[in-house]
Design goal:
Length: about 280
């Protein structure tokens, strides 16, 4: 049963287990994923068992809660390690041979079709086992406040974390077709023989659009989606039609969050948990 209470004007909904304490945090790891209007977190003990997870509303607290992070009690606890992710659409992939750090701003501006003046803090990650670099923009104020509270925190883009996690899975499964569901878009990743063949995000407002992009991507790649192992993660949008997906992708396995309920194996597939894998 969910419980809601006010914490310094921040609405906080713990999904399970109970409120973390300073004593329990000493040997624990916090994984927290920031969206523009909310944050979702998990806490693991030294045996990698989730001991707490929850959602915090950041509405009215500035973008990504940058004006109120110091009020978020979970960030005040003495965690052994903190992994943080930022979710936005401001990212792009550049082949390593073509990448030059001094051009990161131009890569982003060109790929997104925006004025580079709007960027806040541009960072980059080398994707594991891949000859590609992810360039992305995150709010500088968010990073500054977070590092003040947790000086040893590691901060990355959600899509970089997602790509790394999928590549980990692909080390055990030859062909992976991965769908990551978000409220207004879907990430599609295709991996074959440990090579990332495709990664992009598409605006989606219904299940038919999700399936259209899946089959269109596979057609462009000359691949049959039935030959892959479809996996679905993320937060289930209101429009998601499970029966329709199963009709066209009968072998699809779901590891998604619906409200506060986690399906299948939350210890491996709850979104913030990607951060330390």
């Amino acid at each position: 049963m969910q419980e809601t209470f006010e914490e310094n004007k921040i609405a906080h909904t713990p999904f399970a287990f109970g409120k973390p304490t300073a004593e329990s945090a000493v040997n624990a790891t916090l994984s927290i994923l920031f969206y523009p209007d909310k944050a979702v977190y998990t806490i693991e003990d030294e045996r990698y068992h989730i001991t707490a997870y929850g959602l915090v509303s950041l509405e009215g607290m500035g973008e990504y809660g940058s004006k109120a992070l110091e009020q978020l009690s979970v960030l005040k606890l003495p965690f052994k390690k903190v992994w943080a992710g930022v979710s936005n659409k401001s990212y792009c992939l550049i082949p390593t041979p073509l990448h030059k750090r001094q051009f990161n701003e131009h890569y982003l501006a060109f790929n997104l079709g925006v004025d580079p003046a709007q960027f806040s803090l541009i960072k980059q990650d080398q994707l594991m086992m891949q000859d590609q670099v992810m360039v992305y923009n995150i709010p500088a104020e968010l990073e500054r406040h977070l590092l003040q509270l947790q000086p040893n925190a590691s901060i990355r883009h959600e899509k970089s974390i997602l790509a790394s996690r999928v590549m980990n899975i692909a080390s055990q499964i030859p062909r992976v077709l991965h769908l990551n569901l978000c409220q207004d878009h879907t990430d599609i990743l295709v991996v074959e023989d440990r090579k990332l063949l495709f990664f992009n995000s598409f605006p989606t407002s219904n299940t038919e659009e999700i399936l259209y992009y899946v089959f269109d991507v596979c057609k462009q790649l000359g691949k049959n989606p039935q030959e892959f192992s479809p996996r679905i993660t993320g937060s289930k949008p209101m429009h998601f039609n499970r029966a329709l997906v199963k009709r066209f992708l009968p072998e699809a396995k779901e590891y998604i969050m619906v409200g506060g309920d986690l399906y299948n194996d939350p210890a491996l597939y709850f979104t913030p948990h990607y951060l330390n894998k």
